[in-house]
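Complex 461.
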Amino acid sequence: MADLLIEGDLILTMDPDRRMIADGAVAVEGSRIVEVGKAAELRGRHASARVIPGRSKLVLPGLVNCHTHIFQSLYRGLGDDRPLQDWLRNVVYRLSGGLDLEGTRAAARLSCLEMIRTGTTTFADCYNMHVDKDGFHGCAEAVEESGLRALLARATGDLDPIPEPFREDVSTAVRECERMIERWNGRADGRITICPSPTNLMTSSNELVRTLKEMASHYKVGCHTHVASTLHNVNFVRKRVGKSYVEYLESLGVLGPDLLAAHCACVTDREIRLMRDTETRVAHCPVANSYLGYGVAPILTMLREGVVVGLGTDGAASNNCQDLVQSMKMCAILHKNHMLDPSALTAEKVIEMATIDGARALGMADRIGSLEAGKQADIILFDLNRPNMVPSLRPWSNLVYASGGADVDTVIVGGKVLVEKGRVLSLDEGEVMATAQEAIRALVERVGAQDLVRAGAWKIQ
Ligand SMILES: [Zn+2]
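Predicted structure with zinc ion bound:
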């Protein structure tokens, strides 16, 4: 007998048949879905369940954000309109050099709050550029407290061009990563997975990459890294090792179904086939790629070749928000425009990328990504009774092209209601926002970065 019954005008199950159920319901017992079907029938079978009413609601699996950096939310708005190296050096490195555990925690809680509010229930995070070895705890604690599900990659590098304070030798990287895996992997009722990560190949030696990959295999936790993000990246690696980025990853034994590769904006057709053959998964970040001018990732070729592609926001320093719904629209219209073809990518495909394909990209499709009996009850409800959602004859189209995360009404993770009628239950919103505001003020002061609070030719009086 279910204890929770979530109803809706329309349920997008995202199951293998892509069933949509009008006047449907999802029955939940504990943390799992036990039945999906017509509301009238399920109400009879689960009479004692608490009902979340579904009038004017679109119900779908929680969104899966396949790539972000939750520590970056404090940097929001400070890195606009800069070339990548300028953005890295003068904004991200500089601020990250002064980010301690408290600051990381404040940023991570803010990112989690924003994701919860905008319908993300699972995310993959890349925690890199850290000087405080305990800062990672701030990320994991935020996930535990917020109720979200996350793959937290503890990322590192040991080579120039990352500045010295962020570099770790292989033995330190291994020790610290094992410390975090032992402390956090499988915690929060299994919602947290910790994995090792070389941030990218420019800043990681062969030995570091190989060692972290071995650790990932040993703990069976997968591996997350940035792949061929920019031409600069690709050329740098080719100059150093004489191979293309993806070929180099292959030679290190890193490609495979347990690798989540972020960006892949500058991969060739040959590299895409290598990724297909090794079942490497991709996190596509259309907003961040555009914000920093990486170029358009060839994801249409990847999709045609059968590569699994999920969607990511990337961190708030390069997006600048954590709303995956916005990335869904960006993804669709970016590739339509790039191909000069409005049929290049459909709303249906983009919703797959944000749900079931995202779950596959994270290696979690056996647990999340669709509304099916036996899966975790990670469920979101969009309000269709909004000016931008009417008419709602094709609400899945409205979801991609007309809505935003602000239209999310209810969020459930593992059977626990985290947002109800737009109100966040697991975090104190006012306190999280005030703490973050205070943390960035203190950080800017500490590292002497007041010049980042600028407005071009505009003047603040
Ligand atoms: Zn990234």
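The first strand starts at residue 4 and ends at 12.
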